[in-house]
Every structure is written in structure tokens, then in C-alpha cells.
Design goal:
By secondary structure, the chain is of the alpha/beta class. Helices cover 36% and strands 18% of the residues. A 7-stranded parallel beta sheet has the order 5-2-1-9-10-13-14. The structure holds guanosine-5'-diphosphate and calcium ion. Calcium ion binds next to helix 3. GO terms for molecular function: LPPG:FO 2-phospho-L-lactate transferase activity; magnesium ion binding.
């Protein structure tokens, strides 16, 4: 690993899901842009984004997490919701409903549909999801390189035990999450296609060549967890010379937003900051938790207490800065190569 004490721009690689990842990354970019240290100010950020939430609706291929990150970093996000486009209209959705074409539970705004039309057309013409993402980012200029975790099709499906006579039935993750609000317990969560998938071009290199790897407070099961299931990514994190630092998505024993507790209980893991860190035991070097949470007790893991709520742009930038501070501090402790 190259030393980071000189003014060579830092290479930062992050893994991310949708809303939680996007907000954190926006804070990271804000922190970097306002930094005094040129190594931070000129840092390059690569984001490996979860694509297992992807779904086909009305024939359109939708990549919710890539779009949340792209819109948030590119200034087009609906701030209140944290997903979808700002100043959206729903003309197309209204027409589809008038035709009796469901599903009605997945919101598709008119502006957002343009993104899905371009993606679907390009994929049909033989482009990869990486190429589609690069094309869409020409407009959005997110200020970071966005890479899908894989160009292969991976979809999270969920087994629910509410079928007839207690039988399980399988639904797409989006149906469980958006339609059912994860209120029906999941017996199993499976990233279908993950085992046979390959990391998208640039993903392994971005982990190998990073000075710092960051895990934003994304969902540990259906965001970070699915990225880690793409063969090669977890091994690359274990082998990465860079320190790997994460931010707990669990604060005071609960997810800050959304239903990550329902995902964690489906895999038999308690909703605690310590248990989430345990999911990353083989590669995590530093972990930020909130004041009120119990630290994980694993030798070698450095834990810091910091305010973890991304309640304002300033608070989010400070949180990202704290993650980077911890990573650079750990880096300096390592024996010189
Ligand atoms: P999704 O794909 O849209 O669900 O987004 P992510 O997987 O990237 O992030 C979802 C996670 O972000 C949830 O599990 C929340 O616990 C976490 N989260 C949301 N807001 C905050 C916050 O302000 N602070 C922290 N620490 N975590 C947050
Ligand atoms: Ca997601």
C-alpha cells in the first residue's frame, strides 16, 4: 500500500446500498471537498453498489440502490423520501392503474421512468449494467465512480411463512419490503444468482488498490450482505491492504430507518451494533458505534463512539470524516511495507 501521509490523493472505496449508503456518501464527498489536507480534498471515491434489489416491473429494469446513490450524489433526489426524483409527477403510474396494470405498491414517477427506459433499452441492446450506469452518470455527475457489484443478474428473494397451511411462499425482496413493509416474518432471504455472479469490472481492483475501504451504515443483510455474496468480493476485502472501517446502521439497538431488524432476525442475528460488526469479523478493522450501544469485543477491532445520526448535511459530513480519521489512524499503525 502506498503511504497516505504524502499528498497523493486518497483512493477511497465504499460498498453501499440505497438510502443509508447514499446519504453517507454525500456526507463523505462534502467532507472531502472541504478538507484542508490535499490528500483528502483530491480523494477519488469508488462506490460498489448493491444490485440485488433490482426488479423488473412493466418490462422496465429498475436498480433502486444505484439510482438512490446516483440521484443523491447528483442532486436529483427527493430529499424527504431519500429515494426517487425531486419534483416528481405520476402521470404514467396513473395511466397504468387506469389500465388495471399493477403492481400499485411500487412507486414509479415519470422522471424516474426515463432512467429505467434508458437502462432497459441499453440492456436489451447488449450493454452491461456497468455501461448503463456509466451512461446515466454522464448526466448526474455524482462526483464518485459508481460500480454495480456485478453485471450479472442477482435478485434477493424472500420466503414468507404466511402461505396456505403455514406453507412458505417466495416473493421478490421488493414485494416483502415495499408492499408488506417486512411485517410478515421472513424465514429465509436468498440472493438468487449471487453464487454464480462475477464482480463487475473494476470492483476487485477498487478494493485491492484502495487506501481506505468504508462501509456506510447500509443494511447489513440485503445491501452490504448481498454485495459480499458476489464471489471474490469478500476475499478481496479480507486481502485488502487498506484498513476497512464501518459505520453501524444500528443505533440504540434499532435500525435508524427502515426494517433492517426484520432482515437480521431472518438470519438469526440480534439487532445490535456489536452483532452487525460480527457479520464483518473477517475483514473489519474499525467500527463506529453510537454512545448508547455496547461495543463488539473482538481483539484487534478498534471501536469509536461517535454521533451516528445523519440528521443534517453537517452531521453526516462529520460522521464520514470520523470514519476516515479512524481509517487513517489504523493505517499508520500498520508496520511499514
Ligand atoms: P436502502 O437500500 O435504501 O435500504 O439503504 P441502505 O441499505 O444503504 O441503508 C439502510 C440502512 O441505513 C438502514 O438499515 C438504517 O439503519 C441505516 N440508516 C439510515 N439512516 C441512518 C442514520 O442517520 N445513521 C445511521 N447510523 N444509520 C442510518
Ligand atoms: Ca436497497
Amino acid at each position: 500500500m502506498a503511504p497516505v501521509s504524502d499528498s497523493r490523493p486518497l483512493q477511497i472505496t465504499a460498498l453501499a446500498g440505497g438510502v443509508g449508503g447514499a446519504r453517507f456518501l454525500r456526507g463523505l464527498l462534502a467532507h472531502l471537498r472541504s478538507a484542508e489536507d490535499p490528500a483528502r480534498r483530491d480523494a477519488r471515491v469508488t462506490v460498489v453498489v448493491n444490485t440485488a434489489d433490482d426488479v423488473t416491473l412493466h418490462g422496465l429494469r429498475i436498480s433502486p440502490d444505484l439510482d438512490s446513490v446516483m440521484y443523491t450524489l447528483g442532486g436529483g433526489i427527493d430529499e424527504a423520501r431519500g429515494w426517487g426524483r425531486a419534483q416528481e409527477s405520476y402521470g404514467v403510474a396513473g395511466e397504468l392503474a387506469a389500465h388495471g396494470e399493477g403492481p400499485s405498491w411500487f412507486t414509479l414517477g415519470d422522471k424516474d421512468i426515463a432512467t429505467h427506459v434508458i437502462r432497459t433499452r441499453m440492456l436489451a441492446e447488449g450493454a452491461t449494467l456497468s455501461e448503463v450506469t456509466a451512461r446515466l452518470c454522464e448526466r448526474w455527475q455524482p462526483g464518485a465512480r459508481l460500480l454495480p457489484m456485478t453485471d450479472d443478474r442477482v435478485e434477493t428473494h424472500v420466503d414468507l411463512a404466511d402461505g396456505p397451511g403455514g406453507a412458505t411462499r417466495r416473493v421478490h425482496f421488493q414485494e416483502w419490503w415495499v408492499r408488506l413493509h417486512a411485517a410478515v416474518p421472513a424465514v429465509r432471504i436468498e440472493a438468487v444468482g449471487a453464487a454464480a455472479s462475477r464482480p463487475a469490472p473494476g470492483v476487485l481492483e477498487a478494493l485491492r488498490e484502495a487506501d481506505v475501504v468504508v462501509l456506510p451504515p447500509s443494511n447489513p443483510v440485503v445491501s452490504i450482505g448481498t454485495v459480499l455474496q458476489v464471489p471474490g468480493i469478500r476475499d478481496a476485502l479480507v486481502a485488502a491492504p487498506a484498513p476497512v472501517v464501518g459505520v453501524s446502521p444500528v443505533v440504540a439497538g434499532a435500525p435508524v430507518r427502515g426494517m433492517a431488524d426484520a432482515c437480521l432476525s431472518a438470519i438469526g442475528v440480534p439487532t445490535t451494533a456489536a452483532a452487525v460488526a460480527g457479520l464483518y469479523d473477517d475483514f473489519l478493522d474499525g467500527w463506529l458505534i453510537a454512545e448508547e450501544d455496547e461495543p463488539p469485543r473482538r481483539p484487534g477491532l478498534v471501536v469509536r463512539r461517535r454521533p451516528l445520526l445523519m440528521s443534517s448535511p453537517r452531521a453526516t459530513a462529520d460522521l464520514a470524516g470520523a470514519a476516515l480519521d479512524l481509517a487513517l489512524e489504523l493505517d499508520r499503525k500498520e508496520p511499514a511495507a
